[in-house]
Structure formats: C-alpha cells, structure tokens
Design brief:
This protein is 39% helix and 15% strand. By secondary structure, the chain is α/β, with parallel strands linked by helices.
C-alpha cells in the first residue's frame, strides 16, 4: 500500500440490511481509496453480513475484515479496529449509517490544512422519513483551537455534550498517546468518558463544515432501543469522567460542567428505567449513589440547587452521602 492517509473503522452486528447503503456512500467519497484503509469489524453477526462483505470488499483496494464469533460490543470492536489501523488519520462509522458524497475528502482536506489532533463536524439524524440537522455546538469554525474551550460554559451545550465518535476525524498520534481508544467492555455510553478525555488531554482540535453524516435512529435491535443492564454503563462512564477531572491540574474548572451532565443524564435514565423490574432499578440507585459520592459534596449540593424542581425531586435519593443535605434543602 502507498502511504495510508486514512483508516476508517466500521463495526457492525447484523447490519446486512443497511450495509449496501453504507458501502454505496463510501464509493461516493472520491479518489481516496488507493491511499485509504477500510476496516470492517463483523461483531458476531448471524445474518447475511459475510455475503455483503464479499460483494463490496472487492470494490475497495485495501479492505480488512475482523470477524468476532461472538459480539464484544461497540467499544471493543472499535478498539480492535484501532489496533489494525495504519492510516495517519482515523475515522469511525457505524454500519447502519452513511455519508454524503465527498464527506471524507472534505475532512481530510481540513486535517491537512489545520494539522490539529482531531476534527469535529455536524450530522443529520434520520428516523424513518424524517431528517433533522444537528449542529456541533461550536460557533468558531475552520480554526485550530485548544480542546478545553469545547468544555465550557457549564450551563450551555458544548462539545463534550456531542460525543459521537463518527462525527469527525482523528490524527493517529492520539492513539499513540493513549487518548483515542475506548473504555474496554462497555456496551453503551462508551463515548462519554472518551470525549471528555479528548477535550481534556489533546493539544488541538477544530470544528469544520462538511457534506455530512447520516445517523440512522430507531433501528430495530439497536442497543439504544433495548432497556437492560447494559444501559447502566453510563454510571461507569461518569465514574471515569470524574477520575479524569480529579487528575487535572485545575479540577475546579471542570467539575460544574461534569456535575450538570451527570444530573441531567441521571434524571433521564431514572425516568427511562421507571417501568423496569425492581432489581434493575435497585442497581441503578446503588450505582448512581456510589458514583455521586465521588463528587465533592459541596459542589454537588450547589449544582443540585440550580436544577429545576422536577429534576430535584426525581434524583434526590440517588446522590449518595449528600442526600441528607439535599433533603434539608427540599423541605
């Protein structure tokens, strides 16, 4: 292979109905494939995925397939792809999504011009026939920035609220530095601590306009549609976020944003798990209490006080040791 400019990592399980659309969109990415590596991780598929791979594999000059007899989850599959990647730049794509024409060349051009650690971009959600454009929450475009500027302010939507691994391009030096890999054995929420680590530890990033990613939602069989213990990985994810913050030189700068994230997502998950069996709800309560106790108590109480009353009522008994202070506050 000539010098490899890009490695694109595509994990999928039982994605056969969607793979022709995805591969078709890759074939509309211009003349990048002689200098690009396509890595497909077949993560325990039991459908026609191997047949589709045979059909499309011959259309790409550098096509690697990793086959897992049993599914290991998205995080592990992406990590497998990272170990195989040889490109100077790395992109991720899910098997049920697809790209607008020339999306990858646009990101590569920006990466070459700006020479940043990572690029982020907008996307479009697709649910049935409905499409909705989602803008990455950064007004400054096409300019190299310190990734830490993508974290604050605490009360606004920022780049750490936009964790999608497929919405961008990453220089392989991040992987060499141990910043780009995903937390092992996470079935969900694998990108939560991942995006915080990027913004806390990388040296530079940029947000650019691009032709776009089409992100398919509401797919039958997707983990986002299933409510079981795997969805509790968000608790472990925030434990990792809090550890990252504790290791920072100025943790007080980042705690308010991280706590607000935690309280908002905890509120959502408590409501979501409401109809679940009691043992699952107990695990949610216990895990949330343990992770909440990792937050400085005074900061947790302070951020709790700024939440809307309905959220306070929903989460108040899930916050561990500070709950006694919070109960007094709510009297």
């Amino acid at each position: 292979m000539t010098k490899t400019d890009l490695s694109i990592i595509i994990p999928a399980k039982n994605g056969a109905p969607y793979l022709p659309t995805m591969f078709g969109s890759l074939l509309q990415q211009g003349d990048i494939w002689q200098r690009s590596q396509l890595i497909f991780v077949n993560d325990g598929s039991t459908d026609d995925t191997p047949r589709v791979l045979d059909e499309f594999g011959e259309k790409f000059p550098h096509f690697d397939v990793i086959t897992n007899p049993e599914a290991g989850g998205l995080a592990n599959a992406r990590n497998q792809g990272l170990k195989t990647a040889v490109g100077e730049h790395i992109a991720f794509l899910d098997g049920d999504d697809w790209l607008a024409p020339d999306h990858l060349p646009t990101l590569l051009d920006a990466a070459h011009r700006l020479d940043v650690d990572f690029i982020r971009c907008d996307h479009t959600t697709v649910e049935g026939t409905k499409r909705s454009f989602k803008r990455a929450p950064m007004a400054v475009r096409d300019r190299a920035l310190d990734p830490k500027v993508g974290i604050l302010p605490a009360h606004d939507s920022t780049m750490v609220d936009y964790p999608y691994a497929w919405a961008g391009l990453f220089h392989r030096r991040l992987y060499d530095q141990g910043i780009l890999d995903f937390p092992a054995d996470f079935m969900t929420a694998e990108d939560r601590s991942w995006i915080w680590r990027l913004h806390l530890q990388a040296a530079s990033f940029a947000v650019v306009d691009s032709p776009g990613i089409l992100y398919r939602r509401g797919v039958a069989g997707s983990l986002t549609q299933i409510l079981d213990e795997r969805q509790l990985d968000f608790i472990r994810a925030f434990s990792q976020v809090f550890q990252l913050i504790r290791n920072e030189a100025e943790p007080e700068r980042w705690w308010p944003k991280a706590i607000r994230n935690w309280l908002a997502i905890l509120d959502h998950q408590i409501t979501r798990f409401g109809p679940s069996p009691a043992p699952l709800r107990i695990k949610l309560r216990q895990g949330a209490s343990i992770v909440s106790s990792q937050i400085p108590a005074g900061l947790l109480v302070e951020e709790f006080a700024q939440q809307k009353p309905s959220r306070q009522l929903n989460i108040s008994t899930y916050l561990g040791a500070p709950s006694s202070y919070i109960k007094e506050m709510m009297k």
